[in-house]
Amino acid sequence: MDASRCILTREMETIPNLTDIDIYIQHGGYQTVEKALKMMKPEEVVKAVTDSGLKGRGGAGFPTGRKWSLLANRFPRYLCCNADESEPASFKDRKLLEGNPHRVIEGMILTSYANGINLGYIYIRGEFFQIIEQMDRAFAQAYERGYLGKNILGTGFDLDLYTHPGAGAYICGEETGLIESLEGNRPYPRLKPPYFPAAIGLWQAPTIVNNVETMADVALVVEHGADWFKGFGTEDSTGSRLFGLCGHVKKPGLYELESTITLRSLIYDVGGGVRGDKKLKAVIPGGISAPVLTPDELDVTMEFGEMAKAGTMGGTGGVVVMDETVCMVDALLNISMFARHESCGQCTPCREGMPWINDMLRRIEQGHGRQEDIDLLLDVCFNIEGRTVCVFGQAPGVWPTRSFIVKYLPEFQAHIEQHKCVVLPVEESYLRKENVEMLGVGVFRAKNS
Asked: When you count CB atoms within 10 A of the terminal residue's CB, does the N or C end of the chain come out lower?
């Protein structure tokens, strides 16, 4: 990708002390806020973001401008910047907040101005205590320079922004769970409908919930224009994205790239290939909630739509590479342990199903699996999916479980038949795509649907 487009990462890598507002302003910081507040109408900012095709970078990939357009015509309105980032294998938002906090604040100011919002919060994962302190300092600097508070830059626009630390619960990354937590309640997700945040959000008022990277991209769109942003990526996935490459790869790290890059190129050209020159066995392309891909499925691009066609999702951009030494049953067991621990317990299918899946996988991994466990695991997945208030049951629960079992069925069967942990050679460990289709078990649907 053209290095001139890698603004978010280039700024962090080349400008020392960018967290200090004076340094940030010296390099053009907050000029976009001044331009928008003094020279643009709120609806013009909304139009620029809508025309840019910017999609949310928090996981779902919902168009940002469309989300803004759904705001109910009521006031007051609120902004929640989602910095919970509890998805395992995801670390892009943390790096943005650590290295370029004022770029995120600019995006929050522009979003608030565009949508008639005068009060906003950035909800930060509780374990990020250093980032919380840093964001408090950044907000204080912005207040001192007149970019926050009353009558910003003499334009008559008022805006107050605050940090709000979470308590380390994965479910708070779900937007309505986040809102409940902000209100001081247990973070039980709300039913949608009627509780779409844009209609009934924080304190029952219309609320915008956007991800950290999305906020940073809003600032880029308004600064450079919608056409400039659309000049990168594709019509389906405009602009650049931050990818967190980790696992068994030679050069793990955070990379800003266009979504036109293939998963294979990301691993081998950008990441230098599999660590120790071992064979690649599996890849999770968007955080642990994304269904796993086999070595035969690496030529898919990282576009949101193309990922969906491949039966997975771009998610948070956290790419996990697994080499030939990995036991796929053990890897799934690890994911299910997380899902079991993080279920909020509001919905019976998820509350009971997550431990059940975890127990069965543990039994298989320890050599006590039964032939009927495979069908039972898929049946449990079927009875969770679509039967919970939020997507948690499907995301870290059903989708990984189903994709691991279906695609790596030979390794699961070997565990059961040999009554021990068995790591098969890569070529023998997974089913080819045509064989998966013959099973009639889609990655996003139960086997008897």
From this structure: C
| pLDDT in the model for residue 7 | 78
With cut-offs at 50, 70 and 90, classify the pLDDT of residue 441: very low
180 C-beta neighbours (distance < 10 Å), count: 21
In whole angstroms, what is the distance from residue 298 CA to residue 312 CA? 12
Same fold, 3-230 and 240-323: no
| Span 26-39, average pLDDT | 96
In the predicted model, is pLDDT for residue 400 greater than 90?
yes
Residues 6+ apart with CB under 8 A from 173: 58, 82, 84, 85, 86, 87
Contact predicate 447/441, CB 8 Å: yes
Supply the CATH classification number for the domain 240-323: 3.10.20.600
Instruction: Look at phi and psi of residue 53 and say left if phi exceeds 0, alpha if psi is from -120 to 50, else beta.
Output: left
The mean predicted confidence, pLDDT, of the chain is 92
Spell out the domain ranges in the chain. Answer: 3-230, 240-323, 328-439
Q: Residues 334, 323: contact at Cβ < 8 Å?
A: no
pLDDT value at 348 more than 70: yes
Note the maximum CA span of the chain: 74
Instruction: Please name the helix (run of DSSP H) or strand (run of DSSP E) that holds residue 78, with its range, or none.
Output: strand 78-83
- CATH code that applies to domain 328-439: 1.20.1440.230
At the fourth CATH level, the homologous superfamily of domain 3-230 is: NADH-ubiquinone oxidoreductase 51kDa subunit (3.40.50.11540)
Q: pLDDT by residue (tens digit) across 112-121? A: 999 999 999 9
Angle between helix 328-342 and 348-365 (nearest 10):
150
Model's pTM, two decimal places? 0.92
Q: Contact, 169 vs 187, CB < 8 A?
A: yes
Cis ω before 42 (30° cut-off from 0): no
Task: Show Cβ contacts of residue 320 under 8 Å, excluding neighbours closer than 6 positions.
Answer: 89, 246, 247, 283, 284, 288
Residue 315 φ/ψ, nearest 5 degrees: 55, -130
- Specify the pLDDT at position 77: 98
80, 178 in Cβ contact below 8 A?
Answer: yes
Is pLDDT larger for residue 448 or for residue 373?
373
CA distances from 49 to 53, 107, 278, 411 (A): 7, 11, 43, 46
